[in-house]
# Entry
Amino acid sequence: MNIVIFGAPGSGKGTQSELIIENHGLHHVSTGDVLRDEIAKQSDLGKIADGYISKGYLMPDELIINILDRLLDEKIMKKGIIFDGFPRTVNQAEALQKMLNKYGQDVSVVIGLEVPEDELITRLVKRGRISGRFDDNEDTIKQRIQIYHKNTEPLADYYKQAGIYYPIKGIGTIDDIFKQIAGVLKSVSDKESGRQPA
Ligand code: AP5
Ligand code: MG
# Structure
């Protein structure tokens, strides 16, 4: 099963990915984590990424798609993947489809975490104070959310049209949100294996 976990900055993509992995044993691909690693290593890619991330802008599609293409291989594809923070544009979604098709696979399900904007800002400002993630300051957070609405949110419609978008209310306790996600994943995997839901 290949899962896309979708949502605004601070909606809980990383938090819920960890729980999904604990329970389903998938491979986690977080493009944000990959880029932050490159920044920490001060690689050429990291230097480019820093310029975009610190301003709250998206990296160019071509660069991100190349990173993904290099990351995927037979072994990872056998395990199934949870994509966290990718795709973020329709271009990226189309490229992902092509990459998965090369391995005879598809996106099985898109989990859309829906969280009101004031809650997103509260969470990220708080994390910025505690962990000091360098893009968690108020100006950059607002820019990230604006870019989300403009460039990323339209992807929800793209996946709704494909019939694989499942909205989840992303507020409340982390465990309760995970229970809703687990329910969706079970019904999708039952459907894929042709079983009737219990
Ligand atoms: P990325 O790292 O993907 O960041 P993001 O989308 O801004 O999202 P976050 O990681 O901040 O939030 P999250 O949804 O993972 O929530 P989390 O679980 O951490 O991308 C960073 C940057 O990299 C982008 O801005 C862009 O520049 C670049 N980039 C990455 N991918 C790209 C791509 N595909 N194309 C182009 N550019 C790309 O939770 C947030 C906080 O809330 C945490 O402190 C958590 O503990 C807390 N929390 C979680 N759940 C709850 C809850 N239920 N109640 C209360 N608090 C909660
Ligand atoms: Mg994250």
Observations:
- Strands lie at 3-7, 27-30, 81-84, 109-114, 165-169.
